[in-house]
Amino acid sequence: MCLATVAKVLEVNREKGTAWVDFGGVKREARIDLMPDVEPGEYVLIHTGFIIERVDEETAKEILSAWDEVFKLEKDAIGGYYYPGD
Question: For the chain, where are the E strands, in sequence order?
Fold first, then answer.
């Protein structure tokens, strides 16, 4: 199963077709092919390395807060990634 995840756009390089985004402290490059007009400061959904949709700040913070709760409760979740037990 794949999930789209929320990130904040830090900078956009239109020539390269990418944006640097922040997943709560983890910074990655994402493709902007599907949303070439994305701007720094916006919250977006990213799926398989592509920015696919804008998300308003309130919704983004609600989603990020919900994930924080999951990671606090799940003992096998480390740094936002799930590691199944043995």
Answer: 5-13, 18-23, 26-31, 43-47, 50-55, 77-78, 81-82
